[in-house]
Protein 1
Amino acid sequence: ADEPFVVRELNAGGDACHDKGLRMMADIAGVLGRREDREHFSTLAQSSYEAFNSLLFDSTTGLYTDGAGISHSSLHGNMFALCFGLVPEERRDKVVEFVKSRSMACSVYGSQFLLDALYDSDEGDYALSLMNSTSQRSWYNMIRIGSTITTEAWDPIFKPNLDWNHPWGAAPANVISRKLVGVEPLESGFSKVRIKPQVSNLNFAEILVPTIRGSIRVRFDKNAEAGGRSVLSVDIPHGISAEVWLPEADGTWKMVEVPAGIHEFSY
């Protein structure tokens, strides 16, 4: 780990992954029509969720500790809890604040879960600042040290024998489409998608996201209309419906359901 993490038999990182795995198994069983298996894994997941929040949460700090019976809280323990939906709503603000205070104190592998956690918490501004960073722990630094592809670690100082062709160091390659532009499947086979752009201070963005049903095109243009209104255009292929999420002035979101076709939103 790139930040001190106190390992115990019960530990936040591993247990958060375990809980996510149980929920995924329940979802898979549901799709396959295996009702008993779905109930079994759902019950285990709920027990895991309750134990995680009972044994690993420190009410004094408002954070999750690295393990049961210890006081140390790391970025890893809290970002995994946030990423995998283990943080109740009333605890999220404190956990998000802590996660943001730690910057990129994780490996290139951990950056995937950190960025997902931030975007899922509507922290697109901060997430983009990490992807745009020129610090030693940044994708810019991979270019600076001479690589033309993503590396195994942020810099040789963290791993002298790093290789220069690691896909697990390429989190922005999927985060830009899934989270920044915000195109994610809600149902299998992309029969329904969510489009929830968090473009932060970008003035323009356009992307073509390939799916089994055809490519989804999303285009964002800031201040494209008089009065400082932005325009979001989406082109959704036949066989796909979408939830389009638009930011409101008060920081909330407005969701509009649309069928296949070309749609334009001004906000």
Protein 2
Amino acid sequence: MQHKPLTSSVSRLSGLPAHQLRKMIRDRDISILELVEDSLAAIEETDPKLNAFVTVCPERAMGEAIRAQSRVHENDPSLSLLGLPLAVKDAEPVAGMPMGCGSLVHAGQIARVDSIHVARLRAAGAIVVGKTNTPEFTLLGETRNRLGPDTCNPWDRSRTPGGSSGGSAAALAAGMVPLATGSDTAGSITVPSAFCGLVGLKPSHRRIPVWPNSDDWHPFADVGPMARCIPDLILMLAAASGPDARDPFASQDLMPPYVPRCLRVAFGTTLAGKPVDPTCSAAGEALAMLFAQAGHDVFSGIPDLVDPGPVLDLLGAEQEYRARGNLLATNAGLLMPETRRILEQGRDSDPREILAAREAQRAIVAAFDDFMVNVDLLVVPATACPAFPLRCPPSSINGRAVVPDWPSYAPFNMLANLTGCPVATLPMHLAPGGLPVGALVFAKFGCDALLLSALAEAAILRGEFPIAPDSNLLN
């Protein structure tokens, strides 16, 4: 039997790729009203089983669909996302909509402005249909909080979609929307994408500006696109990238176009000696072989790095305490225990340990940059294991004991946050239990277009990953 994720029992437009839907709108094969109504119906039918959304805005979305339909005839190239339903992670504000960030602290608050990311996607014509679930302040590798039920993985509802962009990942994998946003400080886009059989991009650092709260985790935090295929990521990145004075950390570099050429592609089954499930290792190797099949120069090799997980774990706790440490005195009773522990870790950290972690980060960046001097892409497994049961992260991987936390099951993803380079996921195959596994691909800073174009080439060679609805999984 071919395994497929839980989706609507009715074949819906919202389950099609965004670029295909955009063409159908331009060709007048479908109307925007029809598409948005279809997406809202898919959410109504499917989301009670998955808990991907925390807020849905049907009246607002249909009103925007009516206005968007009146612009179809304009053929304005800036409206590259015209009429496409969009889910926004509840870590980003959408003006006039609730903004909880997964916390009781912010329950009931309404955002006054769009984030730059959301504003640009909306300016390109995307229509927000709802906000997706996230753990409190995006601090967990699973999508759970005290506001409601855990978000489930559409491939197996007993398992996690990952975090912290797990609500967006579940909404996409279940075909409720064709596009969604994520945010990423330690793999929060790429891990859920891998667990749910999707593509996701953490761009070069601040390729997409972050505002409001630009200073929140500013050395590591980014926002980026999530979708079901690489061309859709390209559409979203093109609409959202570029500097903005409101984010003082925004990248000022122009994104060079990708000129097809023979690429140097390195691959490895692990980094820093971390244990990896063989089916996940095989996914990285399979993508490397696709690059070889495409004529690129592929070789086995990895940078010599210390484990990046503990480094970002400590530096992240420092950043979180700097951003929200006051909550320990004002709202401690409303916080999840995990959030309190992170804030307390940041508060109580020995300054010498912080200095050592910063030095370790500099060493990681130097080793990565040295390795990438003559390398275009680095391919590794997207995660160390497939999606695990809800609230039960693995205590061992490939026969080795591990700490049951994100640095163990997602040990490589945060390398892109520490270095600022772009990283993307591509689903490769299904594990024996029917769960998707994927590959993680790094490029040099600024080479986002090269990364996505190379992955699009590999995806064509690989063929379509199974994402079609299977109504048998609804029961």
Protein 3
Amino acid sequence: MTDPDVTHHVRFLFDPICPWAYQASLWIREVAKVRPLNIDWGLLSLEFINRDTKDDEYLTPLRRIRPTFRLLERARQVGGNQTLDDLYLTIGEARHERKRSLTDRKMLEDALKGAGLSISLIEETRVNRELDEQLDQAYATAVSQGAFGVPTLYLDDSQTPFYGPLIEVIPTGQEAGQLWDHVRGLIELPYFFELKRSRP
């Protein structure tokens, strides 16, 4: 295991509709407060991952949030990684803590304002084939590397993605850092694949 004082880089892929990704995103932000960690945010659509399924009931709500993906990607292009972080945090809080819809225009307007962005981005990205192509290419790259769900983590320069962690409670302070130490330690073992337990 490497020196815990060494600065690490993690690429964190999320789908804004996923509660597990949102929980993990709150945790990884806590980690960055107590460990030398740089976080690079990225998108991975559950619709894209499950595009071959015949379950329309499952896919329909995922299809409806394509404009939100475009909005998040455009925010990254306009304001960079920190702006994407800010917008995801605001949208995630609205969706997963206040149960707002990801297609709620007022919620999206408020989120954009909170991230210092113009609400004109909503119309700009509502239908944008160029953004769709860019996003699909990014999704395809992640899937080709082995990504199959969110949250997905890439550590440092590795092109091997790891799914998880799935956490019910968000640790803070040194507890968040300790969980990161364990997760990072497992990721660094080239022969480690999976550790699971049943949910209550």
